[in-house]
């Protein structure tokens, strides 16, 4: 049995330690918000947080995740009220929406590490996330809006 902590909840799964974390999340645990895109860490659809860092779950072995803190899109916020989720909605970022769980997870790390990113910072941080619909200008706009919302949230506390 492999013990995982996902979105602050413990899970025990019967899996090969070499299994990609993506399949453990989706098929064994039932958290289907993390998407399969390419299977070779090139598209970003499968991004989750492992100890706060954005990782490609399609190539991260479940054995590596043992004892680590894993956060999926389902755990980004309790009520879908993370500043990024609010901004994504406000700007109407998704078109088909398939890539956006990975986009959001990558953007969350960016804003944690750089709460006031420039366009270039956003482009650099998000370069590994592919959107087949080409919503990149809306993604950038939403990340800027989320940074502002995050600032206001911090001031309100």
Low-confidence blocks of residues: none
Number of helices: 6
Largest sheet: 5 strands, mixed
How would you state the average pLDDT, rounded? 96
Proportion in helices: 40-55%
The secondary-structure element order is EEHEEHEHHHH
Strand content: 5-15%
Strand order of the largest sheet: 2-1-5-3-4
Strand runs, count = 5
| Shape, principal axes of CA atoms | globular
Protein model, in words:
The chain has 157 residues and is α+β, with helices and mostly antiparallel strands. It is 41% helix and 13% strand. The chain has six helices and five strands, in the order E-E-H-E-E-H-E-H-H-H-H. It has helices at 21-29, 62-65, 83-91, 100-113, 119-126, 136-156, and strands spanning 2-6, 9-13, 47-50, 53-56, 69-71. A five-stranded mixed sheet has the order 2-1-5-3-4, sandwiched between helices. A hairpin with a 2-residue loop joins strand 1 and strand 2 (9-13). Helix 3 (83-91) packs across helix 6 (136-156). The longest helix is centred in the last third of the chain and has 21 residues, at 136-156.
SSE blueprint:
Layout: E1 2-6, E2 9-13, H1 21-29, E3 47-50, E4 53-56, H2 62-65, E5 69-71, H3 83-91, H4 100-113, H5 119-126, H6 136-156
Parallel strand pairs: 1-5
Antiparallel strand pairs: 1-2, 3-4, 3-5
Short structural description:
By secondary structure, the protein is of the alpha+beta class. It has six helices and five strands, in the order E-E-H-E-E-H-E-H-H-H-H.
Kindly list the characteristics that best describe this protein:
157 residues; 6 helices; alpha+beta; globular; 5-stranded mixed beta sheet
């Amino acid at each position: 049995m492999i013990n995982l902590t996902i979105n602050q909840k413990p899970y025990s799964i019967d899996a090969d330690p070499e299994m990609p974390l993506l399949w453990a999340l989706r098929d064994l645990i039932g958290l289907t918000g993390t998407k399969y895109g390419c299977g070779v860490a090139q598209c970003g659809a499968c991004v989750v947080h492992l100890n706060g860092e954005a990782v490609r779950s399609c190539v991260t072995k479940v054995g590596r995740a043992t004892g680590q803190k894993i956060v999926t899109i389902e755990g980004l916020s309790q009520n879908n009220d993370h500043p990024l989720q609010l901004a994504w909605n406000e700007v109407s970022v998704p078109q088909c929406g398939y890539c956006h769980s990975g986009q959001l997870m990558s953007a969350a790390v960016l804003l944690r590490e750089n709460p006031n990113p420039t366009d270039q910072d956003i482009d650099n941080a998000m370069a590994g996330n592919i959107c087949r619909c080409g919503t990149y200008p809306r993604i950038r706009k939403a990340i800027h809006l989320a940074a502002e919302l995050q600032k206001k949230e911090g001031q309100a506390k």
